[in-house]
Amino acid sequence: MQAAFFAEREGASSPLIVAALLHDVGHLLHDLPADAPDRGIDDRHEELGAHWLQARFAANVCDPVQLHVVAKRYLCAVEPTYLGQLSAPSIQSLGLQGGPMSPDEARQFEQHPHFCDAVRLRKWDDAAKVEGLVTPYIEHFAPHLDAAAKLAGAAE
Ligand SMILES: [Fe+2]
């Protein structure tokens, strides 16, 4: 909710606001225990989430969701202070997710059509850990869900 709130506040498009709202839906789509990372298990929630979203939205929603973990690996490689700003769970999962990108991987990632959206989403995700911050109710984001779904329908 905070990630979507920040996306909307920055004037992001409806699909990107929806991506921010639903970027961690993959955590709800598996039966792994919540402490999976503690046990050395990567839940691959970005893949699960993107796959689930593909039946409902276009690539402008699904790709930033699929890439939000890779974007963390990218930012660790290109922004020297980034790693130090991550939450403890994000640092813990980073190792399971492949660690910081190599320079070659980073250059390749920059060529992805939704690279910028993925990085923006990642930064909202990282910022969306403010205890007690009041956000709009979920219903507030319904028009963005409708708009993103319509865009997906138009693209078919
Ligand atoms: Fe995530």
From TrEMBL:
InterPro entries: HD/PDEase_dom, HD_domain, OP_Dioxygenase. It comes from Anatilimnocola aggregata. This is HD domain-containing protein. Residues 6-66 form the HD domain. SUPFAM superfamilies: HD-domain/PDEase-like. It comes from the Bacteria. Gene3D superfamilies: Hypothetical protein af1432. PANTHER family: HD DOMAIN-CONTAINING PROTEIN (PTHR40202:SF1), PTHR40202.
